[in-house]
TrEMBL record:
<feature type="transmembrane region" description="Helical">
    <location>
        <begin position="258"/>
        <end position="276"/>
    </location>
</feature>
<feature type="transmembrane region" description="Helical">
    <location>
        <begin position="108"/>
        <end position="130"/>
    </location>
</feature>
<protein>
    <submittedName>
        <fullName>Uu.00g105590.m01.CDS01</fullName>
    </submittedName>
</protein>
<dbReference type="InterPro" id="IPR050524">
    <property type="entry name" value="APC_YAT"/>
</dbReference>
<dbReference type="InterPro" id="IPR004841">
    <property type="entry name" value="AA-permease/SLC12A_dom"/>
</dbReference>
<feature type="transmembrane region" description="Helical">
    <location>
        <begin position="166"/>
        <end position="185"/>
    </location>
</feature>
<keyword id="KW-1133">Transmembrane helix</keyword>
<feature type="domain" description="Amino acid permease/ SLC12A">
    <location>
        <begin position="29"/>
        <end position="484"/>
    </location>
</feature>
<feature type="transmembrane region" description="Helical">
    <location>
        <begin position="136"/>
        <end position="154"/>
    </location>
</feature>
<keyword id="KW-0812">Transmembrane</keyword>
<feature type="transmembrane region" description="Helical">
    <location>
        <begin position="351"/>
        <end position="370"/>
    </location>
</feature>
<dbReference type="Pfam" id="PF00324">
    <property type="entry name" value="AA_permease"/>
</dbReference>
<keyword id="KW-0472">Membrane</keyword>
<feature type="transmembrane region" description="Helical">
    <location>
        <begin position="306"/>
        <end position="330"/>
    </location>
</feature>
<dbReference type="InterPro" id="IPR004840">
    <property type="entry name" value="Amino_acid_permease_CS"/>
</dbReference>
<feature type="transmembrane region" description="Helical">
    <location>
        <begin position="424"/>
        <end position="446"/>
    </location>
</feature>
<feature type="transmembrane region" description="Helical">
    <location>
        <begin position="55"/>
        <end position="75"/>
    </location>
</feature>
Amino acid sequence: MAPTDSPAHVEHPGSTGSLKKVITTRQFIFMALSSSIGAGLLLSTGQALAVGGPAPLFIGFAVVGLAVWITMCSLGELSTNFPVKGSFYEYSVWFISPSWGFSMGWNYVMNFICIVPFEVIVMVLVAHFINPGLPAEYLIPGFLVALMLIYVFGARWYAEAENVFGVLKMLVFTIFIMTAFFIVADAVPTDPRPASELGWHIWKNEAFKNGWAGFLFVFMSAGMAYGGTEMLGFTAAECVNPRKVMGLASRLVAGRVVGLYLLPILMVGLVLSIPLEDTAKEHTDTKTSPFVLAVARAGIPVLPQIMNGIILVAIFSMANASVFASSRALRAISSQGMGPKFCGLVKWDRPVGALIVVFLFSLLAFAKVSPDGDNVFTWLLALASASNYFTWMSICLCQIRCRLAIRKRGLDQHTVLPSYRSPFGIYGSVFAMLVFVFGLVAQIAAAVKSPLPSPPPVFASMLGIVVVAVFWVGYMCWKRDWTLLVPLKDIDLETKDAPESHEFESV
């Protein structure tokens, strides 16, 4: 089915009002550098280090990081030349098919709605490093109320809060990198470990742990850790100059990947070893941030508590960003008839209906107080990781099909894409898609042959795939529309506002 020519950003009758452009370029730059860094990097890397070892951890994060950077360049190309309000999933409708766009919209919503309770659970785990006796049933309501308060003040103050959180994240990684350097150099007198047990000695003896199963396991952590980078597409919709900031963000992401992901991961692999057996313990080291644990094992006083406090704020920041992403995504798809009318409601410049739904789902965090509450962590981690891989694949496929449509019609790329063009072109997006497909397969394969003493159910690793399949096939069956790919000749390249993706009916 070909798209029509009317604008996609026309609000559905079920929506009320629109979101104002109040986020400044300065705020957006800080968000591009450090927003959406949360438990995936700050906590789950500990388990990945224990299972895979330092070499797979670094290699996996480097490969996925490169693919994510390419993806952001592709998203920058699309968003600056074909601006939309619904971000990447509208491109899925435009350049792939209505059914795929529908599934990607709901995949994104389900992902970040589930990440909110996931991050709250992680905040409880981090708080227990300070005081193991703190009851989760008291901590969880406090964290949820704090998240709600930020949204009372709207998008501008959300952006300001993220700027403060971003500075703290960059500070904690700077402190850790400098401290790890001194530990490796045997310049920390309080460290009881001899220099012969640190640095490249760890890599020599534990570089690759548990063979291929350990290597594949890392990709679940990497898929989660980089998740949310693409939410800059939503944030840009509320920026004063969205075309300018998205082109800039796609370039800033490269520095973010190297400085805030790869360098800290390289250093933690040089100063910390976590036995696989520890993952089965009730109070396991893999439930403490590996960056804090590395400093604590060096015997440095006070600093681990300071870093842990900053990490708690950083994870709160990711929960905050997840509320923003899920509420904006839910509001956007609902305003076009892809969801309940109530969720498209905007009052006081806020997506009130969507925020209510998001905060209701955040109550899932109370599962932490149940006897099997820790299993919720693994299930939500697997769901978020698979969902992120699908999101990034869809963005890359949209960029590929846009370029192919330009070629097929004999148009000049400089004319159709005047604002910004990805330096990686089609081949970069193809490479990124292959990495993401590998990440999905690796996640399932690692679950089938899990080296963990208490492995999660295999179905947990497939949950994200099931979610996408249900929405994708469900839409095609409901609409009797079996279009898998919109023909290249029918893709509208002349209209600089997105053509209306589909006549969705309200759910």
